[in-house]
Amino acid sequence: MNLGNVSSRGQLFHITIFELTLAAVLSVALGVAFWGWSLFYELFKPLLKGIGLKYLLTGFWILPSVLPIYIIRRPGVAFFSSVVASLVEGLVSNWGIMAGAWGAVQGMAAELVFACFLYRRWNYFELFLAVSASAIASYSLDYFYYHYSLLTEKFNCIQLFSFIVSSMFLAGYVTIFLCNKLVKTGLLNNFRIVRDRKMFW
């Protein structure tokens, strides 16, 4: 048995109080931001719904699945953050506790992607793969909940594709932008995102 590997795995699964606090704060903040985004979404949705492009506005809801875990880089953070953010949104909006179902699905999909790479690879490929997986999982839930089987295959494909594209920008690129800005401030010096950069760059 390689004791070094055992120790490394133990450290990977050990989340600190600072990491947990950051995950919670980010999740609550995003949950409140979702409420504001919902107003924007409802305003423009009628203009895009008829042509299958309303999902171009939905990628922002994927952000909790990737932003906190991209900073903290611990197992379970994507799922935790996504569920908390969605429940907070449910409390401050008319979605209610049902919002937690979407948060769980989105967070679990992203979590599975990072788990496939053993939570050790954090380049842009893994980030955008997690974003895409989260969007696909979320749309799958929409498909059954909103009876999208009544829509044509072409219309579903347009909606799903627009959701993935939206998520790439509003979750993927926003995560990269925010992380780069926060790293420069020094606020993340105690988190793995900075330690990993010092190690590999």
Secondary-structure blueprint:
Blueprint: H1 3-13, H2 17-49, H3 63-72, H4 77-92, H5 99-116, H6 124-145, H7 153-185, H8 192-200
Helix pairs in contact: 2-3, 2-4, 3-4, 3-6, 3-7, 4-5, 5-6, 6-7
Radius of gyration: 17 Å
Number of strands: 0
Number of helices: 8
- On the 0 to 100 scale, the average pLDDT is 91
Which class in CATH terms?
Mainly Alpha
- CATH topology description: Arp2/3 complex 21 kDa subunit ARPC3
How much β-strand is present in the residues? Answer: under 5%
Largest sheet: none
- Structural class computed from helices and strand pairing: mainly alpha
Low-confidence stretches: 1-8
Q: How many structural domains?
A: 1
How far apart are the first and last residues' alpha carbons, in Å? 30 Å
Amount of helix: over 70%
- Would you list the SSEs in sequence order as H and E? HHHHHHHH
Instruction: Please identify, by name, the CATH architecture.
Output: Orthogonal Bundle
Query: What best-fitting shape do the alpha-carbon axes yield?
Result: globular
